[in-house]
Amino acid sequence: MKGITSFAVILLAVSGAPLLAQDVAVQVKEQKAGLLAQATIKPDSAQKIALASMPGAKVSGFEIEEEHGRLVYELKLAGQDGEREVYVDAKTGEIVTFEHEEHEAKDGGMGAGIHEEEPGLLAQATVKPDSAERIALASVPGGQIVKREIENEDGKLVYEFEIAVAGMTDKKVVLVDAKTGALVEAKKE
Questions:
Q1: Residue 133: phi, psi to the nearest 5?
Q2: Considering Cα of 21, then 49, then 80, then 63, what sign does the dihedral take?
Q3: CA-CA distance, 67 to 69, in Å (whole number)?
Q4: Which of 4, 75, 113, 145 shows its CA 20 to 30 Å from the CA of 188?
Q5: What gap in Å lies between CA 151 and CA 119, rounded to an integer?
Q6: Cβ proximity of 158 and 126 under 8 Å
Q7: CATH number of the domain where residue 172 is located
Q8: Contacts 24+ apart (CB under 8 A), 163-169
Q9: What is the dihedral of CA 65, 67, 69, 72, to 10 degrees?
Q10: Cβ distance 105 to 156 under 8 Å?
Q11: Burial 39-49 (b: 16+ CB within 10 A, else e)
């Protein structure tokens, strides 16, 4: 009898696990009630799209909201290079980017809040954002980064940092090569 009971428990455990995995829904917080019902793209598809943009990352937050008149999923992804937000259009499945004026780190740490001009640019960089920030700040003594971006500038992948210095009205824009770490340009804005 003991053998039959053990076999039944093993059979239930093996056959029940896939059913439980399929029944687990992706938890999506709605900015306001009814947004999820308006989405054409299902949450699990949006999650797959977002994760494809940052291989190896895990979802640390998932919300559906209206952003600049668009219905989007906002996924917070945590990976080796830190955390970033990915927006997936809830009607088309396209990854969208929204320009924000300030990209200050929540914890004040380096590398946080890098805006990608196009999705996937950070993944192409061989120089990590923290290293690029140190290079940029070394060129502007006493400066503080107020805007961070990675973009293609004249066919070259670069980090662009806008740096403010206390007591000065002009900000400095510093470009750092995202492949080599070389200082490309420093100019007043």
A1: -65, -40
A2: negative
A3: 5
A4: 113
A5: 10
A6: no
A7: 3.10.450.40
A8: 163/136, 163/137, 165/140, 165/141, 166/142
A9: -50
A10: no
A11: bebebebbbeb
Q: Clarify whether residues 46 and 65 are in a common domain.
A: yes
- Tell me whether residue 20 is in a domain: no
**Domain boundary at 53, 75, 98, which?**
98
8 A C-beta contact, residue 116 and residue 98: no
Residue 159: which domain range?
A: 100-189
Q: Are residues 31 and 92 in the same domain?
A: yes
Quick check: helix, strand or coil at residue 43?
Answer: helix
Boundary of a domain, candidates 69, 98, 127: 98
Q: Worst-scoring range by mean pLDDT, 19-33, 65-79, 140-154?
A: 19-33
pLDDT digits (tens, 9 = 90+) for 98-134: 433 333 333 344 455 788 888 888 888 898 888 888 8
